[in-house]
Design goal:
By secondary structure, the protein is mainly α. The chain is built from eight helices and two strands. α1 crosses α6.
């Protein structure tokens, strides 16, 4: 019985992930409707993908590249919020019974179940990262929870969000990368969908706000940079 239920569920997710099936997004005047929403979400997702890969590369030497790690993490915050807003808008319109969004239909069940975990882990990861910068290296190491075999501080919490994010977002990426590429850079693209200039303006404003946030947080990460320099100096002196 369980296999009979899970089989079609997995098959639907694989079919959409590989491009063998796709949702038909109605096009509405002025804003583009579901098609415009899908375009905005897809472009934002690609921006997040590029930024996330760059952020992951800093993990090879996170202490030596701490300013880059902070800057790129900050750059990811506005597009992450935009993607949450665009997908949340689509979900709300669907469940509130808006005709065009109901006609387009929901994503595969697997992605609907995975979605909240992606959102929570992404916001938790970025939020805890900003909090670490604000707290500074000293306060970030304060104990939040002491268990017999585990001590939890703000850094540990950030690392826990990262572990969940890697798994959840990795699975989400497998399910959405082909549809996103088809919408953004595939034949025809989404330029014909009404509201293209509004979407471009929104993405441009997100890029500007991301740059501002990156500058602010990099200027605020002094204790982490100073701590790294002191450690290097101690090693050199030794």
């Amino acid at each position: 019985m369980r296999r009979a239920v899970t089989g079609p569920v997995v098959a639907d997710a694989v079919a959409e992930a590989t491009g063998r099936s796709r949702r038909s997004d109605p096009v509405l005047p002025r804003t583009g409707g579901p098609a415009g929403n899908a375009s905005l979400t897809a472009w934002t997702a690609l921006v997040l993908l590029v930024g996330s890969v760059a952020e992951l590369l800093t993990l090879f030497d996170v202490r030596g590249l701490i300013s880059w790690h902070v800057a790129i993490g900050a750059l990811l915050v506005p597009p992450a919020l935009l993607k949450v807003a665009s997908t949340g808008w689509r979900m709300a319109r669907y469940y509130l019974g808006h005709g065009p969004y109901q006609e387009a239909g929901p994503p595969p069940l697997v992605l609907r179940v995975l979605g909240p975990l992606v959102v929570v882990s992404t916001l938790g990861l970025l939020g805890s990262g900003i909090l670490l910068v604000v707290l500074g290296q000293g306060l970030a190491g304060h104990t939040l929870l002491q268990l017999p075999a585990l001590r939890v501080d703000w850094v540990t919490l950030h690392q826990a969000f990262f572990a969940v994010w890697v798994v959840a977002t990795g699975l989400h990426l497998l399910g959405r990368i082909v549809p996103a590429l088809r919408i953004t850079v595939g034949p025809g693209g989404a330029d014909h969908v009404p509201g293209a200039w509004s979407r471009r303006l929104l993405l441009a404003s997100v890029v500007v706000s991301a740059a501002v946030l990156a500058v602010v947080l990099v200027q605020a990460d002094g204790s982490w940079v100073q701590g790294h320099r002191l450690a290097i100096g101690a090693i050199a002196g030794w």
